[in-house]
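User: Here's a chain of 145 residues. Predict its fold as tokens.
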Amino acid sequence: MRRVLAVAMLVGAIAACGGDGGTSPPKDVDLTGTWSVTLSPISGHGMDCQIANLQVTLTHTGNDLNGSYFADDMVCNGQHSGPLGGEVVQGTAVRGQLHFHFDTEDFDLHGTVASEDEASGTYTIVINVAGTLYTFTGTWSAHRT
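Assistant: Prediction complete.
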């Protein structure tokens, strides 16, 4: 009986160490394409902002990401700023880990690829509010369209 128990424990330990147990690094996925991105609200310091219908178009070559983004509107404290857009810069994607910026280092996004059609992560953005720079953080999620 003791031998059967020892073999069962060994088989369990081997199964826990291999396969798809969640410990292996994510695989590289070609992120080229258009992605619909949702950002959590940018809130604090008297601001409450939301970005509507954010679309990001990426080109993924090797470990490099670049492209562009466009949103229908940004609404802060009830005021609409209208459409906005720009470039995805300084982007990298390595073993399922993402890092890129919208236009400058002031809008920094980090994340993880969950599948070939899903990614998520966190953002940091620095915004000038009435002459003072504030740093805001939040989360983002994206799916390929």
